[in-house]
Amino acid sequence: MLYDVPAPAKLNLFLHVVGRRPDGYHLLQTVFRFIDLCDTLHFDARADGRIERAADLPGVPARHDLTLRAAQALQQATGTRQGATITLEKNIPQGGGLGGGSSDAASTLIALNRLWGTGLSRRDLMALALPLGADVPVFVFGQSAFAEGVGEVLAPLDLPPAGYLVAQPDASVPTAGIFSDPDLTRNTPSVTIADFLASQDFGAKVVAKRVAASAQFLFGRNDLEPVVYRRYVAVSQAARWLSGRGIHVRMSGSGACLFAQYATVQQAVLAQQEITATMRVAGDSTGHMQPGFRLVRACPGLAEHPLRNWIAR
Asked: What is the pLDDT of residues 89-141, one digit of tens each?
């Protein structure tokens, strides 16, 4: 059995839609960064070959549960007769653009590969990951990455330490509807890793001239933001509210979560404290935060996936 297996969230530091394949899938460029906001999974091995979840996940039928699908994919690929009971503790918001379901699937592949002793390589597990979803392979890849294609062509990046303020407005955004919107920009010019890295050097110089706790410069943009802001008023209002308090945020993935990057996690914590204090003042007499945010959290960026070393090669 394996307990307390982490599945970290991801941020898209930028997200450009640079084209579309004939089959309808969108061609992307993005940088993935893991953050220390994690779901937790527990795995109990079974000798009867059955794969079950210990409890239902609200709004997610078993046939759509990525943890179950990942376990079944590994079982079928390896021919193992072992099974598992999977318990999932959700902390990453659903419909937030933080890759929670994809991360859960990747941690399931990694953990069961270890628990069952199936011995697949990272490359093998990434091949199983892609049919589960475009974001799943990067979690198996296990480190910050510049991504292209549909998100599966990955090049490692060594990103400096950073802190992130993550805020989820009172909304959940289904990804498919955003990518199918006719107004989505699909022709952003391609960039290179060198372009991104050069922007980080420039951003560091800009931040050095600002107040220490200022949010950092971010490269590029998220092409999905205009569509989400138009369709989900709660997201656009939250972004404007934060901007009005000097916190200029970017949306991660297809939303709804927004984030700001800081040089240190301590600076992100200060921003979190300022926001929550402001919301309590504007809230009701009990001191609860005013409606509009489901989550406000300061998180450190991770240098690598917590399970990266669980895969031997």
From this structure: 999 999 999 999 999 999 999 999 999 999 999 999 999 999 999 999 999 99
Catalytic residue among 4, 10, 36, 170: 10
Q: Are 148 and 36 in contact (CB under 8 A)?
A: no
pLDDT tens per residue across span 232-287: 999 999 999 999 889 999 999 999 999 999 999 999 999 999 988 887 554 444 44
Q: What is the mean pLDDT of residues 150-155?
A: 95
Does the active-site annotation cover 10?
Answer: yes
* Complete DSSP assignment for 16-33: EEEEE-TTSPEEEEEEEE
* Measured distance CA(10)–CA(58) in Å, rounded: 22
Pairing of strands 163-169, 258-262: antiparallel
> Residues 190, 136, 154, 252: is their CA dihedral positive or negative?
positive
What one-character-per-residue DSSP string does 107-174 give? HHHHHHHHHTT----HHHHHHHHGGG-TTHHHHHHTB-EEEETTTTEEEE--PPP-EEEEEEES----
Catalytic residue among 65, 124, 135, 223: 135
Contacts of 310-313 spanning 24+ positions with Cβ under 8 A: 310/110, 310/111, 310/113, 310/114, 311/110, 311/113, 311/121, 311/122, 311/125, 311/140, 311/142, 312/119, 312/121, 313/121, 313/122
The C-alpha atoms of residue 51 and residue 39 are separated, in whole angstroms, by: 19
CA distance 59 to 62: 10
Q: Sort residue 191 into left (φ over 0), alpha (ψ -120 to 50) or beta.
A: beta
